[in-house]
Specification:
single chain, Diaminopimelate Epimerase, Chain A, domain 1, six-stranded parallel beta sheet, six-stranded mixed beta sheet, 36% helix
Amino acid sequence: MKSEEATFLPLKGDGGSVIICAHVNPDGDAIGSALALKHILERKGKQATVIVPNIFPDFLKWLPGADAILVFTNAKHKDQIKTAISEAELVIVCDLNQPNRLAALEQDIMESKAPRILIDHHLDPMRDFCQTVFSEPDMCATGEVICHLLREAGELDSITLDEATCLYTAMMCDTGAFSFNSNRPVIYEYISHLLARGIDKDQIYRNVFYTATEGRLRLQGYLLYAGMKVLHDRHTAIITLTNEERRRFKIKNGDTEGFVNIPLTILGMRLSIFINEDTEHPGTMKLSLRSVGDFPCDQMASRFFGGGGHKNASGGKLQCTMNEAVEKVMAAINHYTDMLK
């Protein structure tokens, strides 16, 4: 993205309706970025609606504007979503690089006659997917891409508290509270601007990372004791979670967020893999990969699990049983034994 091309097109003009859609299984960056765009556009006089393919974590529902998000898997929202897409004058696709990441929303979005804008930070975006592409893989989060666009448009010092709160949450979530992929000084320049708008970063951190259900705490203890396998010779840990175990602990949406990071606190660990059975599609195993140092999670996810992401944080999926998923994960680990040792 060239700086001279970084005019923030959605901010131009008044009136008109815009839909903002994020990827399936939306995370903090997806929800925070989408809501930030919603508030920015509404401040500019537009009608903006955030649409996601499926449910998002409960620990993000405190964000300003989250109660207005339309969820495609919610039967009560489907008519509203169809209407919003058909009437939209502009579609903003947020925090994804391929149309299939829209899941159940893909067909309706691709059939919309409205122009599409992509705002993202993942590798290898499908550039003909949208007419206008703002893609910066070197940036820590889509939230940072939006901060960059705001600065280029001369808007960064004009944002509201709600906008700043959403943008900080987006960047905080995609960097593990700025513990990885966050060494570039400009990130903290943006944070300084957001703090100047009045955000309470400590409260945001507590809302996301320190608001747990009893079920989450009990499940965490159970998984670390009974559901974690540590391969000491390869500095790797694997955690598994089935839907049966999820029901046993009465787990709510989002209660497993961050579990994949815990094994990396073990001295010498380089890689952690969390295999989590999909609640909406039994028989589908979702994989989250996290690493420290130079181990390429994205390469492993792409080669073995049909996924991708970033060097130290990636994901993928497998269509199989949990036992089969563990076998496939072990095969992937064996392939990278030399790097892990």
